[in-house]
Design brief:
heterotrimer; A alpha/beta (437); B alpha/beta (774); C alpha+beta (177); A: 437 residues; alpha/beta; Rossmann fold; Ubiquitin-like (UB roll); de novo design (two linked rop proteins); 4-stranded mixed sheet; B: 774 residues; Alpha-Beta Plaits; 4 domains; 5-stranded mixed sheet; 26 helices; 31 strands; globular
């Protein structure tokens, strides 16, 4: 069972029911559950969308797009059915927040989905969980069944005359399916290859119908926004970055875990105070601030607020909220290789720059880390990554290129130290040299 | 869509709103490179080669998915864009084997061309390349994974274009691989379209691979000799010791109605030409009763002497002539002219596979009622009754699918059995096996949804199959004419069945379906007999009875079709012109080795009445085109051949034209026209085009747009120009029609001598057996 | 008789019934494909030719299409794995906290290499990408069970849990008692 953590600086909204037995529907109700949806039923769709816009809630999947704006793009009238799609294909390395939401508060996801449905006039929602989360899928399935039993889902939800159905769905192992249009393809029983945009999902999405697709955390936040009010929620964060966020702090810290902190919380404080500092009293070497696709930050770059804008200004991205902390005993070349080999493994292969580029980077880094690198390799990898950037079909190519460029730029010396047959300076006794086949 | 104006590289362009930028640019002569984009197939945006800069848009955009709108500004060539394209090619080359020296595509490879253009001349890639062994998927298709750039053209062509869906993609990322549908074997229509659209040498053809380099071939654009759709085909030809061989067939120049489409027969079935069974020497039956090789002079002398002797002694009625469904219009025209004016007989027929005479009869006196093949690709609504285009008219099936897919045409199908095209149909109507005759009445009732939606169609193209003959054709056409705004096409077999019928290979009909009794018809034919002659079965019966002294058979095999006893024909002197020693040729007294359609020039008419030029591609020492054989035969009979073929720069003499009454100077006129159009005057009596003027002048409906025809385009003839009919006996006997029902891998006699088609037949039979066993 | 009925299916009656319901569940039948493949694999162990054929038939698509999709997803396999498939995450968060040491230890304990299956067919071990347990790293999955906060020394104990599930249950009962 994943360990829960807490810290006084936390403001528990999304995580407020974690560890409180809220998988049980009665317990969820005791804890104020399904009140938000009732409020929404009373207020109507326009009000919901306006509240969401005012809340400043930005997508928690990584792109950080305003949830309210996204909902407002859905056409009022549509010949085809509209759908709500909950993206629980949490796969960005360093990210495990949705894991806890599904585990501890499945009804919050259901409630948020219903509210999204009411807001845009959809009658059906899908909750898509990555295939590895089987035990969480079972929890979700039970919660959905309970909600149906209570009449919170079905033809006449809460006796309001509105219809809303929820179908839970499992993936089967594919990072790329986290991309919204690839997820729709997967849900339609196809290869998880992204679609050409435009048209955007809000107009032509799942089964060709207008579709709202939101990250599971975003959806689970929706009832909180409704309950506490948009203004109060927005006030918790920084300008244009409303509310709180689940930050997944992993790697070389004393107390790794998922912490709910206000948007804009200082990264340095997050590492040294909230997560207890670097493990074993070692020194900090680098931080990956928002999941493995975000450019690495040096220790001197981390005195920043963790919101979309401030991290962006620092040359990286807030991403999915996965803060990976790296200590000074870590080989950055090895870390880069492990990062890139993930993207090579997960590239869907659709477009040339990503398919060939990730494969090429992985092979070069493997050889490089094994001690067979040359001077030219560093330049070549940089050239390659720069030529992938912005040229791929979907953001996965960028996700591989951006960290590569950052590693090469910020740790060039360490790459150079691997040259001329020098063994990896961080090779440890009993630990095999990482060579990815 | 209204036109919009936008700017590309500083040039103002105009195109309908919503046009893809890549199409708009290409139309304006601005080349935008692309691997995955393929006109008519779904969009991919996968290769990232077509990236362009759009004003006010942060990232480079793919021109293949960008639709143009008013006021947009694009840049398609800049250092930034060139670098993006170069980098993409470098990435592709990273895992590419660069085995261009042994690659079939070398020299006509899009990857090579782009590498050349964008100068990805330096390899940064020092890693080990992915390797997978080459696979053979079928006798026709080989796959070389390392060369594959994953543009998905093959998958889309097979699925969207062919509706076969035999190709897929497995795995992901750099391990992605194109796969066939049956465990590394292809169970499909073997059309080879996947090979054709492959921009590199990843998919190669079993018949072409490792045979030649592209630049060693000459390319000749002609017409396929197999089915009655008449696809244009470009034959890749290479010199050999005894002529020129065909090494490849495709239509990459996308000329003609078929664009780039070819079926298995068109693409792979040309190899009958090279069959070791080809006749390359004339054969004459010797005193011992055995066929033995002879010189052309001897064989022609023997044949001519016998024909002359029988004509002079017993009259032309003692001679029969059987023509071909595969020879050119000029050859067919010449054959009937030779029969009627030299042999003095109306005993002329061909192996009828389609009742074109009934069709002409039904349409007589109307105008603009025949559908060309081009009409099929643009019609809004099509009714297909009977037939099975996927098997028997692959191009028609392709055009129907494409029209439905891209233009949302509405296809209605009435048939007694399910056919593959049902998948594209808006509505289908199952008919009882004998229900074709009463179809018109059924549709008139209009009670079914099928007939109701049909009636609601503003315009209609009616395609009907060989289930219709005689009266049934007349009824269907009458139904259509009554409803109005309709055009028809009759689906026949063989590459020039329609031409054989149009050119009057009938005992009772002259060229253009002119009844033989029509007053004043073909008045310029000297001494043509007035009474109708014998039909093909009647001729064979007469021969069996000893009533027929001689039988001239050109490119036909009536003995096989009639299952005749060999002894039955012993009293008839038989002359056969053919490519192979067919059952009929084996009984002949003189066998004259003929050239195939790929070895001669002329014109052919497809079943829709579209006439196209045939050009000589291959050559084989020893054989002669049927046209030349007939001219030489006539010459050997002592005939002034200029009465048959008006030739020569100024005509042979002035009186040739004068003998034709008002149309003075046939040959002169021809020469004048040729000179005016900078074409070569016909100086030889063996040049079939010397007859084209006469055909155009005398055959109703063959008024031709010559510039287009000579430029290699299809020109629609007008069957309706046929004059009013008097009912004649031949029409009332639909039993004379024996459809060939050739399928994807059969092609009458020719198919029997094609190794490629036999292999494909065996391969697909095996696939079928495996499927059945599953 | 339709092969979707329990009698003709190669799946257990319960799973066959589940599949019958699954294809009815979605607005479009094909949406059932990926769950169906995963559940079929859970029962049969891998996607055999027969599984692919039956799934294709149930969904109403070609076997080629099923394979196009199935080969895309990394959890789906076409060869048998061990009864307990140990998936060791070695992605960054886990790597930083010793995932490779854990992975090595599993291979040593089981005497098999990457993707290897023990001779008794009980275990297989493979390296996988991020499984979404980064804050409790290093983590593994044995089939669908998560085990987190691992150290190499915990490896034998985990294997024992699966080797002797009955003993374990008894132990649990004792504990509860």
């Amino acid at each position: 069972m994943p360990r829960l953590v807490s810290h006084p600086d936390e403001i528990k909204l999304v995580s407020r029911r974690f560890g409180m037995g809220a998988t049980n529907i009665d317990r969820y109700l005791e804890l104020g559950g399904y009140e938000a949806v009732k409020k929404c039923l009373a207020q109507g769709p326009e009000w919901i969308v306006e509240e969401m816009k005012a809340s400043g809630l930005r997508g928690r999947g990584g792109a950080g797009f305003s949830a309210g704006m996204k909902w407002s793009f859905v056409p009022k009238q549509s010949a085809k059915p509209k759908y709500i799609l909950v993206n629980g294909d949490e796969s960005e390395p360093g990210t495990c927040k949705d894991h806890l939401i599904f585990l501890h508060d499945p009804h919050a996801v259901i409630e948020g989905t219903i509210i999204a449905g009411l807001a845009v006039g959809a009658k059906m929602g899908f909750i898509y969980l990555r295939g590895e989360y089987r035990y969480l899928l079972e929890i979700m399935e039970r919660a959905v069944a309970d909600a149906y039993d209570r009449g919170y889902l079905g033809k006449n939800i809460f006796g309001s005359g509105n219809e809303f159905q929820i179908i839970t769905q499992t993936g089967a192992g594919a990072y790329e399916v986290g991309e919204e249009s690839a997820l729709m393809e997967s849900l339609e029983g196809k290869r998880g290859v992204p679609r050409i945009k435009p048209p955007f999902p809000a107009v032509v999405g799942l089964y060709g119908g207008p579709t709202v697709i939101n990250n599971a955390e975003t959806i689970a936040t929706v009832p909180q926004v409704i309950t506490m009010g948009a203004q109060a929620y927005a006030a918790l964060g920084t300008p244009r970055n409303g509310g709180t966020r689940l930050f997944c702090i992993s790697g070389h810290v004393e107390r790794p875990g998922v912490y709910e902190l206000p948007m804009g919380y200082n990264l340095k404080k997050m590492i040294y105070e909230v997560a207890g500092g670097i493990r074993g009293g070692r020194k900090l070497k680098a931080v990956v601030p928002g999941g493995s696709s975000t450019p690495v930050l040096l220790p001197e770059e981390i005195d920043i607020g963790m919101d979309f804008d401030q991290v962006g200004k620092a040359g990286s991205m807030l991403g999915s909220g996965g803060v990976v902390v790296i200590d000074d005993q870590t080989c950055i070349v090895e870390f880069a290789l492990r990062t890139i080999s993930f993207y090579a493994h997960e590239s869907c292969g659709w477009c040339i720059p990503c398919r060939e580029g990730t494969d090429w980077l992985k092979k070069s880094l493997t050889r490089f880390h094994a001690g067979f690198g040359t001077d030219a390799d560093i330049g070549n990898m940089q050239y390659l990554a720069e030529n992938m950037l912005g040229r791929t079909f979907c953001p996965l190519g960028d996700a591989a290129a951006m960290p590569t460029i950052a590693f090469l730029k910020k740790f060039r010396k360490e790459f150079e130290d691997h040259l001329n047959g020098t063994p990896c300076p961080f090779a440890r006794e009993g630990v095999p040299q990482l060579t990815v086949v | 869509m209204p036109d919009v104006t936008f700017t590309v590289d500083g040039k103002k362009l105009t195109a309908p709103a919503g046009t893809l930028l890549i199409d708009a640019c290409r139309k304006a002569g601005i080349e935008i490179p692309a691997f995955c984009y393929y006109p008519g197939l779904s969009l991919q945006a996968a290769c990232r080669m077509c990236v362009v800069r759009q004003e006010k848009v942060p990232k480079l955009q793919t021109a293949c998915t960008t639709t143009v709108a008013e006021g947009q500004v694009f840049i398609t060539e800049s250092p930034e864009i060139a670098q993006a394209r170069k980098a993409t090619i470098e990435l592709l080359l990273g895992n590419h084997p660069l085995d261009c020296p042994v690659c079939d595509a070398g020299g006509e490879c899009e990857l090579q061309d782009m590498t050349f253009k964008y100068g990805a001349g330096e390899s940064h890639y020092v890693e080990v390349k992915h390797h997978r062994d080459e696979q053979q998927w079928s006798p026709a298709v080989f796959y070389d994974r390392p060369r594959c750039i994953l543009c998905y053209r093959c998958i889309r062509m097979c699925g969207e274009g062919m509706d076969v869906w035999a190709l897929g993609i497995h795995n992901r990322g750099a391990n992605s691989v194109i796969v066939p549908n049956d465990h590394q074997q292809l169970d499909c229509e073997q059309c080879g379209m996947c090979i054709d659209v492959c921009p590199v040498g990843a998919l190669t053809s079993g018949s072409y691979r490792y045979k030649t380099r592209p630049w060693e071939m000459s390319h000749v654009s002609t017409v396929c000799t197999h089915c009655a759709d008449g696809c244009k085909v470009t034959l890749g030809v290479r010199s050999t010791n005894d002529g020129a061989e065909i090494v490849r067939a495709d239509n990459r120049d996308k000329s003609g109605i078929n664009n780039d489409f070819l079926c298995a027969k068109g693409r792979f079935g040309f190899d009958f030409v090279e069959s070791p069974d080809r006749l390359t020497q004339p054969l004459v039956r010797n005193a011992a009763g055995k066929l033995e090789p002879a010189t052309w002079e001897h064989a022609l002398r023997v044949a001519a002497a016998k024909l002359k002797e029988i004509r002079d002694a017993r009259g032309g009625a003692a001679i029969g002539v059987i023509g071909s469904d595969r020879t050119t219009n000029e050859e067919n025209y010449l054959l009937q002219k030779f029969a009627r004016t030299v042999l003095q007989t109306n005993n002329i027929d061909h192996e009828r596979t389609t009742d074109y005479a009934a069709f002409a009869h039904a349409l007589a006196g109307t105008a603009g009622k025949t559908a060309s093949l081009r009409d099929i690709s643009s019609a809004c609504a099509i009714l297909l009754v009977g037939g099975n285009p996927t098997e028997e008219h692959p191009l028609l099936a392709w055009l129907l699918r494409t029209n439905v897919r891209l233009n949302r045409a509405r296809l209605y199908i009435a048939n007694s059995k399910p056919i593959k095209l049902d998948r594209q149909a808006k509505a289908t109507q199952e008919l009882p096996p004998d229900g074709f005759k009463s179809l018109a009445a059924f549709l008139d009732q209009g009670t079914s949804d099928f007939s109701k939606s049909l009636q609601a169609e503003e315009s209609l193209v009616v395609l009907f199959g060989e289930e219709f003959r005689g009266e049934a054709v007349e009824n269907l056409v009458a139904w259509g004419l009554k409803r109005g705004n309709v055009r028809f096409a009759y689906l026949g077999d063989h590459s020039n069945s329609r031409g054989a019928a149009d050119m009057g290979l009938f005992p009772d009909l002259l060229p253009g379906y002119v009844p033989i009794e029509a007053p004043g018809a073909f008045a310029e034919y000297p001494n043509r007999p007035a009474a109708p002659g014998k039909t093909l079965p009647q001729m064979l019966e007469a021969a069996s009875n000893g009533e027929l002294g001689a039988l001239l058979v050109v490119g036909a095999n009536p003995v096989s079709r009639a299952k005749l006893d060999h002894a039955a024909l012993k009293n008839t002197f038989i002359i056969v012109q053919d490519l192979f020693l067919t059952e009929t040729a084996a009984l002949a007294d003189v066998v004259l080795p003929a050239a195939s359609l790929y070895e001669k020039s002329g014109t052919v008419t497809n079943t829709y009445g579209d006439i196209q030029m045939v050009r000589k591609a291959a050559d084989r020492a020893g054989v002669k085109p049927d046209f030349e054989i007939l001219v030489r035969l006539a010459g050997a009979m002592g005939v002034d051949v200029s009465t048959l073929v008006p030739f020569g720069k100024r005509g042979t003499t002035g009186d040739l034209g004068q003998s034709r009454g008002a149309q003075a100077g046939e040959a002169d006129r021809h020469a004048v026209w040729l000179e005016a159009n900078n074409l070569e005057p016909k100086l030889s009596p063996f040049d079939p085009l010397a007859l084209l003027d006469e055909i155009e002048r005398l055959v109703p409906g063959y008024t031709l747009d010559r510039i287009n025809l000579f430029a290699g385009n299809d020109v629609h003839t007008k069957l309706e120009a046929t004059p009013g009919f008097v009912p004649v006996q031949a029409l009332s006997n639909p039993d004379l029609i024996v459809p060939a029902h050739d399928t994807l891998f059969t092609s009458g006699t020719l198919g029997q001598y094609s190794t490629a088609l036999k292999q494909l037949t065996q391969h697909q039979a095996k696939e079928l057996a495996e499927t059945a066993a599953d | 008789m339709s092969p979707t009925s329990e009698t003709m299916s190669l799946f257990s009656p319960a799973l066959a019934r589940r599949f019958d319901a699954l294809v009815e569940k979605y607005p479009v039948k094909r949406s059932a494909l990926i769950p169906m493949l995963l559940y079929a694999q859970d029962e049969v162990g891998y996607l055999s030719d027969a599984v692919v054929a039956e799934v294709a038939q149930r969904i109403g698509i070609t076997e080629l299409e099923v394979r196009n999709v199935a080969t895309y997803y990394s959890m789906l396999r076409f060869k048998p794995a061990g009864k307990f498939n140990i998936q060791v995450c070695t992605n960054i968060s886990c790597m930083l906290r010793g995932a490779y040491e854990v992975y090595e230890r599993f291979q040593e304990e089981l005497g098999v290499g990457p993707k290897g299956v023990t001779s008794d067919g009980l275990f297989s071990v493979e390296e996988v990408e991020c499984i979404g347990a980064c804050c409790w790293a290093p983590a593994i999955q044995v089939n669908y069970d998560f085990h987190d906060d691992l150290k190499p020394d915990l490896v034998p104990g985990i294997l024992d849990q699966y080797r002797n599930p009955i003993q374990d249950q008894e132990k649990d009962q004792e504990k509860n008692a």
